[in-house]
Amino acid sequence: MNQIMTPKLRTSSGLYEYISIVIRRRWIIIISFFSVFLSTLYYVNQLEDVFESYSTIVIEEHNTYVNQMINTPVRSLDFYEGILNSRSFLKSVLDSIDLETFKRNIPKMDQENALHYINNNFIMRKTTYTSFLQLSAHAPVKELAFAIASKGTEIFRTRCQEVAGEESRLAVTEIEKQLDIVRSNLEKAEHDYRSFSEKNGQIQEGSTPELKTLQEAYAGGLAQSGLKEADLNAEKKLLARLETKINPESDNRSPEYLKLRSRLRELEKEKMRLEELGIRLSGLSTVDRDIVAVETELLKYKQTSLVTTTDPGMIRQWQELRKSVLAKETELELFKRKLEAYKKAINTYKSENPDILSNSLELLRLERSKEVYENIYSMLLEKLEEERIKSRSSTAGVKIVDLPLMPSNPIPKNEHRFYLLGILLGLILGVGLAFLIEFNDTSLKNNEDIEKYLELPVMGTIPHITISKKNDIEIQRKSAKSSKQVSVTQYPRSVLNFSGDDSVIAESYRSLRTNLSFVSPDHPLRTIVLTSAGPSEGKSLTISNLAVAYAQMGKRTLLVDSDLRRPVQHHIFNQKREPGLSDCFIDNPDFERIIKKTEKDNLFVITAGTFTPNPAELIASNRMSKLIEYFKEAFDVVFFDTPPIVAVTDATLLSKKMDGLLLVVRSNHTDRMMASRAIGNVKNVGVNVIGTVLNDINLSNRYTSYGYYKYYYHYYKSRTS
């Protein structure tokens, strides 16, 4: 049998589809938008005025040599933030301001809350200038903000002075220890030199040009080696102190850790060897990548589990110190090799000339040794005096550039920024929620959904019928929960008058009638079942208006209410339920009473009739087949209203005896899984499914995909307004 399919619309997620979703879910978007915006408005109105008072300080650079001498790392911003967050600092600020001042400005403030408040509202920020920091205090009262800023700045500088004074005392102590050692070595060198001179008398230093040159070169190398070794030892101490903060203690170092340390040292030596050979490694070389990988593995061996992150500045200092120590070790090793070569040459010369050169060489060695210790001793004395002067200084490396001022106005709240953010968040939340609900909605909405999920043609689309409450039908039935209870259902009654009616609803039924007429032109459909997948799809109202449309065309039309369980056609046409279809199964039924004439020309209706406990058996009986043949002989077209397919089997049993079945789908209501299962049930028993009727569509907006009806709707509305 040929079927007429409506033209398949383009199924794309274009702009119109998105606009359609937005319009369909507009109330969700509006509610979400106003919820967020009103919350933002309330939040902004609850914001209190905040005053800010701040000072600017500058941090002076410290002596790198002294830091290495006392194993003190370079101070970072974390050092000063640690002072600000210390309880002793907070307690000092609170004591200087007085707790009563806090209570007067901020109600219900105790000591712990005051300390917490100072900690959260007295903060340090970096400025655009290097070594310059800003100390800011925030408070709801300008006097309190000024008090916290001024007292906090002064106490911060005092605390820095105390820390710097302690470091200076440690530096002086350490330098004095080094001086004692160097002084002892210097005295021994001077004593050896005098003793040798007195014992051997006045001798010439170097009896030959060759020996003198070797002696001078050896003495110069020995002096430089001593300085380099002292510098190397200082850097090794700093590196060891720094590695205790990055790597495990020596007792907890596993073989894997020691192996990684050895591997890192080999890679760094290899890189230095390549650079000394003049090989320039462009970009990130293989050696650099290996070094980074080994460093990453080493950093996993933390000293304690409490340390979860490592200061990037400390990591960079660790890398630079390792590189510097390795370079100085290599350089010192070269110097020692050179000294060994000089020493070997001098010994060779002495062995060849024992009597001439021995005394001269020994005297030269003693003199050079004495000079080395004199140089080291002078340098340490100079550093000691510098550190003593610094310990007596009152700045401690922290200078106040700008003192805090009493604020005159609160910090701007930037209400417009909050409003804009609230608008954006409200729209994003609303649209996102609308699309989330839309994409999780499994109901059939339009022609494309039916053709995609049900694989059936849409024979017609019926717009939403607006009915006033006075035209509703009140249907009373026994409740499904209890036989003693009565449920009341409001059912709309709207049978159209197609004669002269040019409304979009009447036109939609005419279009449905036309499409059904062309389904099989050579063999017109005589008996048609109209049903739905589930309840409340609008099948009874649809079939009644479709029957009226056929009758208006001049065809003798019979509408049979075969829903023997919950019939409504007698309510729609204001007829009595009895006698009806169930009464046709008795012997010699009175068809003149059963087939009732309606107010519409050419339209007859058979109501459900007397209640029967076994409607499925009646519909499946041979008597029903004979009744259908009788109806076909008496009428041009016969429509059967049946219960929903998924609920009971009545529609499936009756459809096998019909020319075709038409499924009513309610837009935005019928679940596609239920409808697909209903179609599968009837197709499995060989029912001819003609197509579907999309009911209760919304044509009030232009961004829909329901064919030409939307244009007819807007044209009709504009013409009649």
Kindly estimate the percentage of residues that lie in beta strands according to DSSP: 5-15%
Identify the strand order in the major beta sheet: 5-14-13-8-12-9-11-10
Distance between the termini: 44 Å
> How confident is the prediction overall: mean pLDDT?
78
- What's the number of helices? 24
> Portion of residues in helices?
55-70%
CATH superfamily annotation of the domain at 447-720: P-loop containing nucleotide triphosphate hydrolases
Q: Spans with pLDDT under 50 lasting ≥5 residues?
A: 1-12, 65-73, 303-307, 713-721
Sketch the major β-sheet: 8 strands, mixed
Named at the architecture level, the CATH assignment of the domain at 447-720 is 3-Layer(aba) Sandwich
CA-based gyration radius: 50 Å
Total number of strands: 14
What's the CATH topology label of the domain at 447-720?
A: Rossmann fold
- Helix-strand makeup class: alpha/beta
The first-level CATH class name of the domain at 447-720: Alpha Beta
- Categorize the overall geometry: elongated
Written overview of the protein:
By secondary structure, this protein is of the alpha/beta class. Among the domains are: 250-301; 447-720, P-loop containing nucleotide triphosphate hydrolases (Rossmann fold). The protein contains 24 helices and 14 strands. It is elongated and about 160 Å long.
